[in-house]
User: Which sequence fits this backbone?
């Protein structure tokens, strides 16, 4: 129950410099390989042609090889007669010239005037010596340097090498990276985990990343949280590796042994870098082999890979880092960031009304979906408190700018049909794709006001009129031209555990002492519906246990019920059935898409409309249960 | 001796459309694979999480799990006392919360006040319910869509998939491409070819390119030029392939069978596309499988791969084409191009005085080194006569703009030491590299005049003064600030066949009737030396047989002698010895580097100077023979 040591907080640049000075001493080994297998590899020395290409005087045309002087004076009006096999020799493109010849007459300029003697031919144009001849070495001359040292071999380099008689060549060996997954709670992928067990995934991400960056990977079996076992694994790995990565255990907890083991076996250079996520990284050297202790949180581990491992692998292979597209985009919201670390944000980016708008994704180091969903990364420097809404961010794009421009941005309420819509767009032939972020219905309306979205998904009940959505457009967006298109009617109700063990049948049951509720965030359509219904039934929200606990989408509410931290929550039927929960229906609500005028009637809008009106899409959504799409695509306002 | 058919000349866009309409009908098959092997592959269907992650309420910190209500009211001044194993439970980051707990107190906020009873602990800060807890589904909720259809799987996608309980998934099978090399003259790489034999290289380039673009490759044995054999190979290939490429034989010569075979077995859609190089391509379909007959010239074949095959492979895999950097650069010279075809130029690009300057490389379809040396491609449209010197070209860059900016441009006379210099720069730690193009010494001087090069390599003898280089700078570049730095003294002489069979001992022998000469181009320093020496000895150039045949560098002259098309040529000793020729010395000449003032004294210049003054570089050049570098790097003017 003791905390062993406290971490440093070294700036990234300084940590990188210290680590590189140690790591760069390691030189990559050299291996000889068949040229045919050398694409994507790096030359270890300059390569000089062993033969010329062509290695003989070759015809550059289909035609007749001649001695040029035999054709001098030939003209359409004064054809020159030659004899096959005597002073004219048929030759194909690439074929060798007979020794006495020094030029080729193209087949188009040859005629056979005598039907009885096919050996007689006539030439109507003189050729100069060496005309239509590829002389020896036209492409590659023996002795010429084909490739310098440290050249990354592309497909067509293989052709030049082989033509130059290079059938084997010396290449830099790929950097060999050993991965050591650690943790007594870790199980391999393949079976479903018990509580407290975690399926190992980080080293598979690491392995794929390292291979993408040109490294070779070996992966050890999972090492339990015992110092002796980890020491043994590290000793084995440093014998044959250029780099060792220890996955998890890099922090300072009672079961984090990476620091201690590396400090014992070699030299720890850095423990703790001022980046977020990724702070508790260990950088060390054992027996001349650089070793990185990676944090256990997946986003932290990947951030360290990108910032520290990727550039090292490229440097070892003597290659420049591949260019990444930088895009300037406006932050859609205020983002506070710690002064203590440089923070790497995952962001979604869209282009709305000629402005690129970036929205940060979940910032937790454990949210691997924030990497999956991201369009790029941006750094908020150490000593910066964050960025204001509307402030510009430099985003390292993971997609092409064309893909960003073809992205339909949808901010607003969460609905499962949006995922289906995303999938249908991906399956279609159009270049358009959908990026949806879940900020609640009111969040969607504010995004339309600020022109940060093309579309907002809404299901807002107006307590006075009993109408959905249209009253809100009139109230909040009257000064803007907004179109409203119906997407779905969906069944809203209470999500409860299977068999409804608390016997919850109405909203009034939420006030019972034995019932714990889980709520949606303020501004969510479901929250508006709840508050409206509670008011109608004169139920005081504050007496509902759990009213203040907010989740951000239907599935999270259902997951809370499934996990037992709540007995009931409000959500759609599909969320309940997806997680195998029971459902107490309360109402059918209207889920519509509010569409900003500049986006309406554009080609991506038409593609979108076509999908949501299609029988295949309707069927796919209705299959989830609790959905009625018979009017999907109808214009409401 | 007959020419079978004439080719069409279909515009590329039209040919692509016709071919794609046929090829796109083919759907990629689906296969199921272990998630751990799925990086770089494409999903065939949307993937929904099978479990939540975390799948239990997990501690987000190292600390003590508690019931939040037990901590209410705790403060530094009013610590709350708890008992381990009763109402406080040690928990590590990622560990499961005991069922009765709903929050975690960070280890930093826990103290052990009683030395005798380590079970007693004090908490100095209250926690809210669910504080420091990663609740079920924080990352992925069971039922949530992790990836849509047709998603290209990146390393971190693996982590999210595995965490979501996805251990197998359905992927698009890679497009299977069969390669059929053809040609009776073709031999496999491994042994040196005889005259008329060609080492097969195109299908190795094709295979590497197709794999880079996501395809799988199978390669058949070389097929001789017989219709029946090619038919058999095609029939076999279409049984299991998504695409078949026949290498060489796509034109209309007497040994070109691709058209005939495909016309017989299936439907030829296009024969002949208006592109250069690459015109004689055949596009066909046999049994629903698209087939491409590739031209035999390596640059033509690669151009067809890039323009027609690459986009098809990406489309089949439902992926956007990777972005290519487009750079606007000024053409350093006038480039004439046929009105009949769209021409794809390979170019070298450099940045000189803030201008990007592009210089076309050898345009022959057989010069594979033009691909190796290229920094990018530019197209001159059909119906354009070409571009003027100084006109802007849109270049599809193969290197990053940063690499272009770090390139030292050297136009001028060819010297083998420039290749060594290029290699030394690549081996060094600086980002700088060298791009040299061989335009002769006078070409280098003109490039300095037009500010199209940083450096020019010169060896120009002034007939009047007997000095090298400086008189030319005064004559042609007096209005510019140019520095002259010595690179090497090199031995110039006559290159003759081994054993000197024609017994050539002086320039006068070149006038003999039994001696054929090979010359260098006008403006080359060697040509200037020859003309000066001939004038000094009062030898009339026009009586020298072969005086008008011009080669563009020393190695090409030596290759002409080696190939037997000439008996003698002027060149440096190293070129003769590289190709095993004999050498009759005539003079030592000064090879210097003329350096434009804006480039002088810049960081890349200093790196360059350091290399050429280094003992290692001197030794490497002198090892070739005929070189003296004792003064290399000395400033002359």
Assistant:
């Amino acid at each position: 129950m003791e905390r062993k040591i406290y971490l440093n907080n070294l700036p990234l640049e300084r940590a990188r410099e210290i680590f590189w000075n140690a790591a760069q001493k390691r030189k990559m080994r050299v291996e000889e390989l068949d040229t045919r297998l050398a694409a994507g590899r790096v030359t270890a020395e300059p390569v000089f042609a062993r033969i010329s290409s062509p290695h003989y005087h070759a015809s550059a045309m289909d035609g007749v090889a001649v001695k040029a002087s035999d054709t001098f004076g030939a003209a359409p009006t004064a054809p020159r007669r030659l004899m096959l096999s005597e002073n004219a020799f048929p030759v194909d493109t690439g074929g060798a010239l007979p020794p006495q010849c020094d030029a080729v007459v193209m087949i188009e300029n040859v005629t056979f005037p005598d039907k009885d003697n096919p050996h007689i031919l006539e030439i109507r144009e003189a050729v100069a010596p060496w005309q239509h001849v590829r002389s020896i070495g036209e492409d590659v001359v023996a002795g010429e340097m084909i490739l310098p040292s440290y050249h990354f071999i592309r497909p067509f380099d293989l052709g030049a090498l082989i033509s130059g008689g290079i059938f084997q060549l010396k290449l830099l060996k790929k950097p060999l990276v050993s991965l050591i997954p650690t943790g007594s709670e870790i199980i391999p992928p393949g079976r479903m985990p018990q509580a407290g067990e975690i399926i190992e995934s980080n080293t598979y991400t690491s392995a794929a990343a390292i291979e993408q960056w040109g490294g070779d990977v070996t992966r050890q079996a999972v090492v339990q949280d015992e110092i002796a076992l980890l020491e043994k694994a590290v000793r084995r790995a440093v014998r044959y590796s250029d780099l060792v990565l220890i996955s998890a255990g890099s922090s300072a907890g009672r079961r984090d042994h990476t620091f201690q083991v590396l400090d014992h076996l070699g030299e720890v250079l850095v423990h703790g870098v001022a980046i977020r996520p990724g702070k508790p990284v260990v950088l060390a050297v054992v027996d001349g082999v650089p070793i990185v202790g990676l944090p256990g949180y997946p986003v932290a581990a990947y951030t360290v890979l990108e910032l520290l491992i990727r550039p090292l692998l490229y440097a070892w292979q003597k290659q420049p880092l591949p260019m990444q597209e930088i895009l300037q985009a406006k932050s859609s919201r205020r983002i506070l960031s710690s002064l203590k670390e440089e923070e790497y944000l995952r962001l979604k980016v869209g282009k709305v009304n000629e402005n690129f708008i970036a929205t940060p994704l979940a910032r937790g180091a454990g949210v691997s979906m924030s990497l999956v969903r991201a369009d790029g990364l941006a750094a908020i420097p150490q000593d910066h408190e964050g960025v204001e809404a509307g402030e510009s961010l430099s985003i390292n794009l993971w997609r092409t700018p064309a893909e960003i421009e073809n992205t339909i941005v949808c901010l607003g309420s969460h609905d499962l049909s949006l995922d289906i819509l995303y999938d249908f767009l991906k399956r279609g032939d159009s270049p358009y794709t959908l990026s949806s972020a879940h900020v609640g219905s009111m969040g969607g309306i504010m995004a339309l006001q600020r022109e940060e979205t093309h579309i907002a998904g809404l299901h807002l009940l107006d307590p006075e009129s009993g109408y959905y959505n249209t009253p809100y457009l009139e109230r909040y967006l009257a000064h803007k031209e907004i179109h409203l298109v119906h997407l779905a009617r969906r069944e809203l109700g209470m999500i409860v555990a299977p068999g409804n063990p608390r016997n919850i049948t109405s909203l009034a049951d939420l006030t019972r002492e034995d019932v714990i509720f889980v709520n949606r965030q303020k501004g969510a359509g479901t929250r508006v519906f709840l508050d409206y219904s509670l008011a109608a039934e004169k139920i005081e929200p504050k007496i509902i246990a759990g009213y203040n606990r907010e989740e951000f989408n239907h599935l999270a509410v259902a997951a809370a019920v499934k996990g037992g931290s709540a007995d009931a929550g409000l959500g759609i039927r599909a969320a309940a059935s997806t997680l195998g929960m029971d459902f107490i229906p309360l109402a059918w609500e209207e889920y519509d898409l509010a569409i900003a005028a500049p986006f309406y009637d554009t080609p991506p809008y038409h593609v979108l409309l076509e999908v949501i009106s299609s029988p295949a899409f309707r069927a796919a959504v209705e299959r989830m249960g609790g959905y009625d799409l018979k009017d999907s695509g109808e214009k409401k306002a």
